[in-house]
């Protein structure tokens, strides 16, 4: 134990006020069930439990720069198991969302993927696999885009053969307007959506 | 009383298939001289019981020997009134179910049990309860007027009895009276303590007599017949009571022993001081009298620490959560830091922990490194385990140490007594520290006139000894019960439950004593030990070894038995070298005759004989259970149930060995710190006594391995066959007892 830090409640207050479900982390009793349940735990800088602990201690930079908050795959294992009923997924996405809004992009491609995903949903109401991958792969420029596409070419062909991906562009769903108004509403309440 | 015996053999439950019943009946009538001998296929059914009842009426049978199931079952069916002697022979569990049917050895086993049972019935005399000449009192004395004491008094009063409440302070209430609020059902918010109402209710109840500023100067006598001398306001009052409840409570652990700045820094206080301050009004800093803003609570201050209090006091987490709520109530902007090892909110109180979290209290898991004072404010350095960092918390106004509970029975200093010369560990003056399980250890509260000391024997942390799970309120003094925090640390809700439990036990005690029957664990037993004083040699073993201090002593060292203090374990009977202590249905001679009744085959038959003395409380049911599971073991073992292994008299070893028995097994309860002995010290005493037997055996040129002591719990039934068969292997290796046929 080396660093001599002090508890600073200001960041906790910031999180409670600005992050989706932020106030729920008050209920965390630090049992570590979320950390033990997370399939991506070994790739994370800090497990969810520790993220919550750091928020309370006021470690703003460490929390917002942690890759953990952008790694959540929404598998919901932690949320199902949390003995205190904390919506861990919502908090993690909320934190990611908040970090991005503050211009912190620890995992840029995750952010890009999220943005493209949402935009497509908003546009057509469904995901066009080839269009989404194209946008995602080429976000960093043409050369990396070609490289990434070639890496995934085999997968693409197999998906085509099995009918999991269509050659023609996807059509809009029926009632796209209703979906959009729902998404708009969600956007307003601060839940969901990802804007870079 | 002229005895007329009758033997009834039940052939149900597989007994008839396993044994030759006719030859058993022949043995009984021809060799054992039992005048009436009948068998029935379903003896515990209405028809079977009627058969016995008819014989009682028509033939005048008064000694009924039933060979069938274990005596642990159907005892209610085979109850023919206190004037009839009933002896049960366990042919079902211990013969038919654990041995192969229709074998010669199985038949021999049944025959031996029949001989032993008839011999025992022959030696048993009808029982009469002990009723003292003096009048029995059914009032109950309660020492301590805190929440437990007051609740116990009210419970007793509600049951229509009289309670006498003795409180050393000038008013009732104890710690409850000093508290501001309470966390109780439904654990969502703080509620009133209710102390005022409780005190009022106690004071107004006609069945409760309250003595304040009073202490108990002396308690003499025995359950049902106690005389308590109470000194109240300088006067001495005498009260006759039937039983006693000690609810003297707790004191906070001395925080100045902790290295947390208490006593050096003014703004470091204990949770008790915090509670008193909150109850009086504003929570302020003792140093400058300003209202507090940031408060830090130190949990486990000295608790769960081998250097201080090794146990969890279970109330401190809740107390701190409650006091944190006081701080928030006073100033919603205040920040509470709670530094804990583990948050332990017992019972349903987890909800209150949630509330504290919702209120925004900061919980830090870790330990305190140091507390510093700078510029009027405090800064606390902690090792935050969850962050993995050392954290400095600054701008703290007040530090509250959540100290644990020390029972009032724990002495301030361990008392010392004069030890016999040459005792190990004695100082220059020959003084030695008193052991906690001695009656001379605990701090003065009851002042009993007992030969074994004035107070309740305690366990390792200074709490009066009781069995946590099986019999929590019982102490090692019959008729004296503990309730509340003197028994174990607990919070108010639990203390009330505890008080009700102890009150119920105390009422039972008054009833049972006046009827002359035993209390727990041989509840309802009307036998009691009788002393043949002409042959007493004043050796004091019985007065010393009785686990319940039942026997007092006169100046010459003669034992003065107190039958209502007695729990009928027979430890005194086992201790007496002169064998002058006996019960009407259990005596040294009786078991000796049972041993003699066993038929020992000649050496060349190669059928060894082993006797197992079995504790009735745990080992005997374990054997029954093993038989119910149809486990099998050597047919050469005969079980003799004993009330407690502490009642075994060493003369039985000599009796058995001289008769040619090849080995002796003693199966008793676990002893030591986590003892399971129903009579606390019985099995331990037995092992000590048996340790001395080996010298005697050596002198007789017999191997010490022929006598073996084993600890058996009731859950160890699956080990029974292994234990017995392994012992039989040892006996086979040693060869037959050379005294066979002498």
Structural features, described:
- The complex is a heterodimer of chains A (196) and B (742).
- The model of chain A has no long low-confidence stretch (mean pLDDT 87).
- Chain A has 2 domains: 9-101, Fumarate Reductase Iron-sulfur Protein, Chain B, domain 2 (Orthogonal Bundle); 108-188, no CATH class.
- Chain A has 196 residues and is mainly alpha-helical.
- Helices cover 55% and strands 2% of the residues of chain A.
- In chain A, helix 8 (129-137) packs across helix 9.
- Chain B is α/β, with parallel strands linked by helices and 742 residues long.
- Chain B folds into 5 domains: 1-126, Rossmann fold (3-Layer(aba) Sandwich), CATH 3.40.50.960; 140-249 and 409-515, FAD/NAD(P)-binding domain (3-Layer(bba) Sandwich), CATH 3.50.50; 253-403, FAD/NAD(P)-binding domain, CATH 3.50.50; 530-581, Alpha-Beta Plaits; 587-742, Rossmann fold, CATH 3.40.50.
- Chain B has 19 helices and 33 strands.
- In chain B, the strands form 10 sheets. A 7-stranded mixed β-sheet of chain B has the order 15-21-16-17-18-19-20. In chain B, strands 9-6-5-13-25 form a 5-stranded parallel β-sheet, covered by helices on one side. A 4-stranded parallel β-sheet of chain B has the order 2-1-3-4, with helices on both faces.
- In chain B, a hairpin with a 5-residue loop joins strand 10 (214-220) and strand 11.
- In chain B, helix 5 (104-123) packs antiparallel against helix 15 and helix 6 packs across helix 8 (195-204).
- The longest helix of chain B is centred in the C-terminal third of the chain and has 24 residues, at 492-515.
- Chain B is elongated.
- Chain B starts with a strand and ends in an 8-residue tail after the last helix.
- The model of chain B has no long low-confidence stretch (mean pLDDT 93).
- At the A-B interface, strand 1 and helix 3 of A face helix 11, strand 18 and strand 20 of B.
- Strand 1 (4-6) of chain A pairs parallel with strand 20 of chain B, so a sheet runs across the interface.
